[in-house]
Design a protein that fits this description.
420 residues; 11% strand; 14 strands; TIM Barrel; disordered N terminus; single chain; alpha/beta
Length: 420
C-alpha cells in the first residue's frame, strides 16, 4: 500500500496511481526466480456488548442507533471476551493439526463489501483470520494533519485518508470481525516504502525503534479515539481497544529488523509477520521473544517461479503488476492463484504439516481474481479437508506456546516442504 496524503480514500484510483509510480520495480520483481521479495502493496480497494464503554462522557448524548455525540473514545476497555481456539497440547509422536493462517493487509471494509463477504465465508466454515489494520482508513481527509509520521510533515502519507462516509461502516465491520473471533493486528499508518524503483529507501526502512514506537502510539490513538475525528459517524463503540493489537506486518515488508523488533518488544507485541520464509514450522526470532510468522515462498502453478504468498507478489508475476485485464486474464490469474494455494496445502499435508501462511488485501484487482481465489480455496478446503483449521496468528502463537518444548523442537526441525 502506498497512498497519498489527502487523496480520495481507499479507492482503486489511488492504487492505480501507486502502481504507475512503481512500474519500474516490476521488471526487477519478475527477474527473481527463487523468492520474490516484492513489496506488499496493500490494497485499499475502493477497501456489540454488554460492557459499559469508556467512550461515554457525562455530557454525551447517545443516539438511538448507537452513535454518541461528544465521545472522546469509541471502544470498550477492557475488551469484550472474544471467541478463540483452545490450544491442545500434543503428546510425543502425535500428529499436529494442519493449520492455515490467512491474513489481510489493510484490514478495512471497502465500498463493495469485500471484508463483509470474507466474514460471511468465515462464518460458514468456522474460520478465524487476521486483519492487519491500516489505521488511516479511520482518519478523514480534513483531519489528516493529526498524523505526523517520523521524518515527514504532518498530514503526509503514502496511503489515502478515509472518506468520512465509510468510517461508520468500517467500525461496524471491525466490530463484527472481532466478535466472530478474528484477530485485529496492525499494518501501521502511512505505508512509507520509499522510492524503491530508484533504490531510494526513504521510508520505514530508515526508522529507528523510537520512530516505530511513535507510529504504533499514533495507530493506537486513531483506533481508540475514532469518534473524535468522526463526530457524525453513526456507529456504536468497538467491542475492543488497541490493546488487542499484538502482531504486525510492515509496509512493503521493510524495516530495520533490530530496530523494529526492539519497538515491538517494548510495546508488548507477540509476533511480526513481515519476513520471507518457507513452508516450515515457525520459530521465534533469534534473541527475541517475538514469533516470526513469515510469508512463505510458493511455487506459482505451472511455472518455475517462486513467489511470496501475498497477492501483490502474485500480481507482479502474473500480470506485470497491472490491476486491470480482460476476462481471460482475470480467469487465468484466479485459477493459477487458487491452484497454487491448493498445491501448497497438499505439500504440507503430505509432509511436515507446517502452518500454511497466506497474505492478501481487500481488493478488486483483476475482476476480483485474488479475492475469488481465496473464497474458492476456503470453501473447497472445508469440504475436501474438513480437519484443516483456519486460525489467526494469535491463535497460532497460543498453540505453539502450549506445546511441550521437546515436541515443538521436533516440529521445528522437520525439513521444509516445497509446493509443486
Amino acid at each position: 500500500m502506498v497512498h497519498n496524503s489527502g487523496r480520495q480514500g481507499w479507492g482503486v484510483a489511488g492504487l492505480e496511481a501507486l502502481l504507475r509510480r512503481q512500474r519500474a520495480v516490476v521488471a526487477l520483481v519478475l527477474a527473481i526466480v527463487v523468492v520474490v521479495l516484492a513489496f506488499g502493496l496493500p490494497s485499499a480497494s475502493s477497501e456489540e456488548g454488554s460492557t459499559q464503554s469508556s467512550a461515554e462522557t457525562a455530557s454525551g448524548q447517545r443516539a438511538a442507533d448507537g452513535a454518541q455525540l461528544g465521545r472522546t473514545t469509541g471502544v470498550v476497555s477492557p475488551p469484550e471476551p472474544q471467541p478463540r481456539l483452545e490450544p491442545v497440547r500434543l503428546q510425543p509422536g502425535e500428529q499436529p493439526p494442519q493449520f492455515v493462517v490467512l491474513s489481510m493487509d489493510g484490514g478495512c471494509e471497502t465500498r463493495s463489501g469485500v471484508m463483509r463477504d470474507l466474514l460471511d465465508t468465515a462464518d460458514r466454515i468456522q474460520a478465524h483470520f487476521t486483519f492487519f489494520l491500516s489505521g488511516l482508513c479511520l482518519v478523514p481527509h480534513d483531519r489528516s494533519t493529526d498524523y505526523h509520521a517520523p521524518g515527514h510533515e504532518p498530514g503526509e502519507s503514502d496511503l489515502p485518508f478515509a472518506d468520512p462516509d465509510m468510517v461508520a461502516t468500517r467500525i461496524d465491520t471491525l466490530s463484527r470481525a472481532y466478535r466472530s473471533g478474528h484477530e485485529i493486528g496492525t499494518h501501521f499508518l502511512g505505508h512509507f516504502c520509499g522510492d524503491l524503483s530508484q533504490g531510494q529507501h526513504t521510508g520505514v526502512g530508515l526508522w529507528n525503534a523510537e520512530d516505530w514506537r511513535s507510529e504504533i502510539a499514533q495507530a493506537r490513538n486513531f483506533l481508540d479515539t475514532w469518534p473524535v475525528r468522526n463526530p457524525t459517524a453513526q456507529a456504536a463503540d468497538l467491542p475492543f481497544d488497541a490493546s488487542v493489537m499484538k502482531g504486525s506486518r510492515t509496509p512493503c515488508l521493510l524495516g530495520d529488523r533490530p530496530e523494529l523488533h526492539a519497538a515491538l518488544e517494548a510495546e508488548g507485541f507477540r509476533y511480526d509477520a513481515s519476513d520471507p520464509g518457507g513452508l516450515s514450522w515457525p520459530k521465534r526470532f533469534e534473541n527475541s521473544p517475538l514469533w516470526n510468522f513469515p510469508l512463505p515462498a510458493l511455487r506459482l502453478d505451472q511455472t518455475n517461479l517462486w513467489v511470496l504468498s501475498m497477492d501483490y507478489n502474485f500480481l507482479a508475476n502474473q500480470n506485470n503488476a497491472r490491476t486491470d485485464g480482460d476476462q481471460a486474464t482475470c480467469d487465468r490469474v484466479e485459477q493459477q492463484t487458487y491452484q497454487t494455494y491448493v498445491n501448497s496445502l497438499d505439500a504440507v499435508l503430505a509432509g511436515n504439516r507446517a502452518p500454511l501462511i497466506l497474505g492478501s488485501h481487500l481488493n478488486s484487482w483483476l475482476c476480483g481474481a485474488y479475492v475469488k481465489s481465496i473464497h474458492r480455496f476456503l470453501d473447497d478446503t472445508a469440504v475436501n479437508h474438513p480437519d484443516v483449521q483456519f486460525i489467526s496468528f494469535q491463535e497460532l502463537a497460543d498453540w505453539l506456546e502450549a506445546q511441550d518444548p521437546a515436541v515443538l523442537t521436533e516440529l521445528q526441525q522437520r525439513p521444509g516442504e516445497r509446493s509443486y
